[in-house]
Design brief:
Enolase-like, domain 1, TIM Barrel
């Protein structure tokens, strides 16, 4: 505020009048000043195998957004995202993800949040992500098996989605989950299952099924390499569950498209149902993506046929769409064809939390009978924090295995490692933004490239 003096002549007298004027208010904005990209490759302590392949390292790109308040130079932010390209999951090569990230970085530098209008800034971030998505669809890819449009560079987009939401959360002093109002009543979540490799022996699975923590309602097993061996592995697991102190534990298999066709899938599932019922197993049996992701109708055919089986009353089988799910349009197709009882939403395939939320909201509103599972891939606690935020934000959540401590590494790159509160329980995040920063000192030996 300042005072402006005006002089007037009134009846021959000089009168000094002070007029109070309010100076124009310059509203604060938060500007993106710089974005660092750090490619990394961190070795796994134990190799992870599925029917599609194996992993011995966790690789990707850390995205670090540096931003500042335009009115208060002491108010600075560093936001974090994690790009996890996987040729067998997101159909992204490391080189394509890097090129895409460099291009996306250029678009965002210099952009500003309004800082004072959360709804407006969330809309702004969605607009920015749409711009990045458009860039991704136009990007020339070098990978020999690129995904069809609009599925290009989804993991790359998701890394920037994470970092932008982390920034908004820090600016408004809210965890990412609280930036959305859909899941505010959810105070705790549990990890739904422990996952075992496609090569885990029947003996190992039988022991695990009996001794897993009681908080795990299910045991999740990768299958698809050899059906005869898989049948023995599953039968041994079922026998162990029936004889254990937790006979209501659920068997959950991830076929990873290995059975390909509907006919083969129905044949294998019938043999599994007969074998498991024969040893006394009467709990639900969850089956993840038995058919090719490119044939949603085949998945629907399996789902519809199984619902008519008389064994459903004894051991109900639920079919889950996994690899077939990329976008909201895929979710709508599942609904239109009634193709699955469950869907697996992966942040890296959806293109980030914002897109995953749209998918979850659609199912909640239009297909409430379809259960929602939040899955993941090989990642560190940094990627897992994004999954935790999504789990607490969604209007509905039935299963999750991706929001959990990741300890298959020589160390932890997160400044705030994920920890169970008790058993396998996690409580609603309270740290602003993503929930963690990047431990630069720890990850430095694993950084392979920077920009």
């Amino acid at each position: 505020m300042y005072m402006k003096r005006h002089f007037f002549i009134l009846h021959g007298c000089l009168v000094l009048v002070f007029v109070s004027l309010m100076a124009p208010v310059a509203w604060a904005k938060v500007r993106i000043d710089a974005i660092d990209l750090k490619a990394f490759s961190i070795p796994l302590e134990k190799q992870f195998k599925t029917s599609k392949g194996s992993s011995s390292t966790c690789y990707g790109i850390f995205v670090l957004i540096h931003a500042s308040d335009t009115q208060n130079t002491n108010r600075k932010f560093t936001a974090l995202g994690s790009i996890l390209p996987r040729t067998l999951v997101t159909n992204e090569s490391k080189s394509d993800a890097w090129s895409g990230a460099v291009a996306m970085r250029r678009i965002l530098i210099g952009r500003t949040l309004n800082d004072g209008d959360l709804a407006g800034d969330m809309t702004l971030v969605e607009d920015w992500l749409d711009h990045l998505d458009t860039l991704a669809q136009g990007q020339k890819l070098t990978w020999q098996n690129p995904p069809t449009k609009p599925r290009q560079l989804r993991a790359t987009l998701s890394g920037f989605d994470m970092a932008l939401l982390d920034l908004v959360g820090q600016v408004y002093e809210k965890p990412i989950a609280d930036l959305f109002e859909d899941g505010n009543e959810r105070k705790t979540i549990f990890r739904s299952a422990a996952t075992y490799n496609a090569t885990a022996s029947q003996k190992k699975l039988a022991i695990a099924a009996a001794k897993l923590h009681t908080d795990y309602p299910a045991i999740r097993i990768k299958i698809g390499l050899d059906f005869e061996k898989d049948l023995k592995r599953l039968t041994a697991t079922a026998e162990s569950i029936v004889q254990s102190s937790k006979p209501d534990r659920v068997i959950w298999v991830d076929v990873n498209q290995a059975w390909k066709e509907a006919a083969a899938s129905l044949d294998h599932l019938e043999q599994i149902a007969n074998a498991l019922i024969a040893v006394g197993y009467t709990q639900p049996f969850l089956c993840e993506q038995p058919t090719s992701e490119k044939d949603m109708q085949a998945l629907a055919n399996v789902t519809h046929a199984i619902r008519q089986w008389p064994t459903q009353k004894t051991m109900p089988i639920k079919i889950m769409a996994d690899e077939a799910i990329w976008t909201l349009d895929d979710i709508k197709q599942v609904h239109a064809l009634d193709a699955a009882d469950m869907v697996n939403i992966k942040i890296q395939k959806a293109g980030g939390i914002v897109h995953a939320m749209k998918m979850g909201r659609y199912l909640y509103e239009h297909a409430p009978h379809v259960e929602i599972y939040i899955g993941g891939l090989v990642m560190t606690d940094i990627g897992a924090w994004a999954n935790i935020q999504l789990c607490f934000a969604l209007p509905r959540l039935d299963y999750q295995t991706s929001g959990a401590p990741r300890r298959n590494f020589p160390g932890n790159p997160a400044t705030h490692p994920i920890k169970y509160v008790t058993g396998r329980q996690l409580t609603r995040p309270i740290v602003h933004g993503l929930g963690t920063g990047l431990d630069l000192q720890h990850v430095q030996p694993y950084i392979t490239k920077t920009h």
